[in-house]
Write a structure and sequence with these properties.
InterPro entries: DedA_domain, VTT_dom. This is DedA family protein. Keywords: Membrane, Transmembrane, Transmembrane helix. The protein has 192 residues and is mainly α. It has one domain. It has ten helices and no strands. Helix 2 runs parallel beside helix 4 and helix 4 packs antiparallel against helix 9. The N and C termini lie far apart (51 Å).
């Protein structure tokens, strides 16, 4: 099933309404859909590099709006919708312990989940469930998702096809390195 969803998502990159499809995929990926928008962004940007920043912007806005849906699921419908989604991702067992610690480092959780391959939908639902301040959630989501989508767009715009293979094979590593550098930068700024 997952392979069919992936193949379907890839085929949408050539559609005349690909930006709308990207917006839809970015929106639902932030709360329920298992395929990240990167799989649409990459072929779309490679096909039309001049639209790289527009494509990244559409993914950003839609993803943050979808994150708000995930937040609402956690805040208002956790038992009915949020818990089954998290259970299907294998995250249900640790929810109580996670709830008590989440808001202490919620900014970092949203930032890291937004930048890395960690399922962002888990964090959006948890942010709502634990009552994370909505402003913190929105600002962090914009920073994290914007960083992720604009880095991919920038790399593809600047380096084209050769970077596609590198990103697709090492996407997780690229974003983990970025997060380490970002957290390290914050630590340096804090202690200097």
């Amino acid at each position: 099933m997952l392979r069919r969803l992936y193949d379907w998502t890839i085929s949408l990159a050539d559609h005349p309404r690909a930006l709308w499809v990207l917006a839809f995929v970015s929106f639902i990926e932030s709360s329920v859909f298992p395929i990240p928008p990167d799989v649409l962004m990459i072929p779309m940007i490679l096909a039309r590099p001049s639209r790289a920043w527009l494509i990244a912007s559409v993914a950003l806005v839609s993803s943050v709006l979808g994150g708000l849906l995930g937040y609402a699921i956690g805040a208002f419908f956790y038992e009915q919708i949020g818990q089954p989604i998290l259970a299907s991702l294998g995250k249900a067992d640790a929810m109580e312990a996670f709830n008590t610690r989440f808001n202490d480092f919620g900014f970092w959780a949203v930032l890291i989940a937004g930048l890395t391959p960690f399922p962002y939908k888990v964090i959006t639902i948890m942010a709502g469930w634990t009552g994370m301040p909505l402003g913190t959630f929105i600002i962090t989501s914009i920073i994290a998702r914007g960083g992720r989508f604009f880095i991919v767009a920038g790399l593809l715009w600047a380096f084209g096809t050769p970077i596609r293979d590198f990103i697709e094979r090492r996407l997780g590593l690229v974003f983990i390195v970025f997060v380490v550098l970002l957290v390290g930068g914050f630590a340096v700024v804090k202690y200097i």
